Amino acid sequence: MELKEMHEMRINDMEQQQSLYSMYDSKHIPTLYFGRGNAKLSKRTIHFGLPTGYTCTKYAKECLTFSDRSTGKITDSKTCEFRCWSASQEAYSPQLRAQRWSNYEALKGLSYDDMVYVISWNLMNEASRYYNDHEQMPIIRINVSGEFFSNEYFLAWTEVANKLKDYVEFFYAYTKAIPLWLKYQDLVPTNLKLRASYGGKFDHLIEEHNLPYAKVLFDETTELEIDHDDTKSRDPDNYHAVGLLLHGVQPKQSDASKAVQKLKSKGFSGYGSNRKQGDKR
User: Per-residue pLDDT tens for 207-234?
Assistant: First the structure.
C-alpha cells in the first residue's frame, strides 16, 4: 500500500466513523499512550499498557504485584510467587506509571462502541506514523502490562483488530483472562493471536481446552522452547508451549530471587539494551 493511499484511507475512515459517536469529536478524543519496542521487543512492536496488578486481580495469582499509583511503592500480593516485571517498571518510572493509569482512566467507563472508537482512532494515528517512517505495517502487543479487565474491553480489542487489519500486520497478547477468551473465542479474529499465561486463577482451563500457552521459568533446564523476544509466542502458526525466563527484581530471600541469581550465574541477566534482539525491522 502506498504511503499517501494509507494516509488518505486513515483520514476518510476515521472521519466517517466519527459521526457514529455523539460523545466525541476529533478535538476531544481521549489520548491513549503507546510505546514502541523495549529491551526485549523490536521497534516494530507498538505496545499498549494498563496499570499492573490493579487490572489483573480477577485472573492473576502467582505474579500479582502492584505499584502504588502515587508513590510507585511495590506491594506483592499474598499469592505472589514471583514479581511482575511490569510492576517494577512502573515503580521506577513515574511517567510510565502515569501513562498506564491515564490509559485505564480513559477507557474503563466507556461503552463498547466508544471504547472501540477511542482505541481505533489513537492506534490508527500511531500505526500510520510508524508506516510513514518505515514503509511497513507495525505489530501490536496488547496489554504489555495489565489485563483484559472487562467484557467490553476484551471485545473492543477484537473489533479493533478487525477494523485495522489493513493497517497492522497482526495483534497479539498474553492473557490470564481465560474465561473471557473461551466465552468469546468465536469472535477473536485470525489476526489477533492470544496466548494463555500460566500462573493465574484459571490455569486448569488451559490444558482442558488445549490452549497455546507461555510459562515463566525459574531455570533454563526445560523441554519448553524459550522465547526471548516474543517472536515464538506471537507466531500465528505456533501453537506449541513456550517458556519465558524469569527476570527483574524479586522479593528478597524468595525462591524467585534465588532463581534470578542462579540464572545470572549461568549468563542470563535479563533483557538489557546490549542484548541481541529479534526482529529489528
Answer: 999 999 999 999 887 788 888 888 888 8
**Can you give the C-alpha Rg of the chain in angstroms?**
19
Rounded to 5, what percent of the chain is helix, strand, coil?
35, 15, 45
Q: Render pLDDT for 93-107 as a digit per residue (tens, 0 to 9).
A: 999 999 999 999 999
Element housing 98 (H / E): helix 94-107
Residues 6+ apart with CB under 8 A from 99: 33, 49
Q: E-strand spans in the chain? A: 34-36, 45-49, 65-67, 74-76, 139-145, 170-175, 192-197, 213-217, 225-226, 242-245
Q: What is the pLDDT of residue 265?
A: 86
Q: Is the dihedral of CA 90, 91, 95, 101 positive or negative?
A: positive
59, 198 contact by CB (below 8 A)? no
Q: E strands within 6-68?
A: 34-36, 45-49, 65-67
* Block residue for cell numbers 471485545: 155
CA proximity to 222, closest of 206, 201, 246, 190: 246
Rounded Cα distance between 68 and 241, Å, is 33
Q: CA triplet 234, 238, 241: central angle to 5 degrees?
A: 90
